[in-house]
Sequence to fold (232 residues):
Amino acid sequence: MQQEWEDELEESKKNKLHDLFGITYENQKLYFIRKALMKMVDTCPMCGIQPPSQLDHQSPRSDFKTMSVSRLNLVPVCGVCNNKKRDKDPHGFVHPYYDHSIKDVPFFVITIHSNPRTHRMSWKFSINEAVISDKALADKINKQVGVVKLYRRLYRETNGMLSDLLSGIDDITEDILNFLLQKEYKTHLKRRGPNDWHTVFVKALNDSPIFTIEEAKVYAKTIKPINGGVNA
Ligand SMILES: [Zn+2]
Fold:
């Protein structure tokens, strides 16, 4: 239907619709659309790192002029993701309003590694395609992750989260560490779902035989608390 409008509507009318997006900013007539959409999510659905600050056209405004202010085509995202996504194939991106089929399937995975010589712990991010039955969707997710440079950005975030978890580590036992990790995991799972990086990272630490209290203490000496150690 939408494509038919794109094909049949006169160019001048299409351009008028295209330009409507220009009046969705603050103090303008269609600001209510932007305001309502921005309230829908706390964090950018593409990265889960920052709050949304911009509206992304899932299908680009230049090609789909009639969908310029269509709410189903407008996704609140952060500036970093929007800049990285710009001009990339929109069909290669997961649409947060429609691709809900795997919302509850834990497909995002973090694996903890440790260098046996240096005790330097590190971790890798991946998509477990085996649990995603729709192959095209798995490809989309992998592509999107690459375009927004998600793994590199998440390494910094997870490192900050770990430094918070580890502040005060010298005063706790293995039991308390496990308790804290499980508590964090349940909180993030409930609040953010199984594929948010907070949930997945705490789960990875919790499940990992490498991340013992001794390893945690060694690791704590190599990183500085970033956010003031609020969790310990
Ligand atoms: Zn983002």
About this structure: Strands lie at 54-57, 74-77, 108-114, 121-127. The CA atoms of residues 175 and 208 lie 15 Å apart. The chain has two domains: 2-85, 108-222. The radius of gyration is 21 Å.
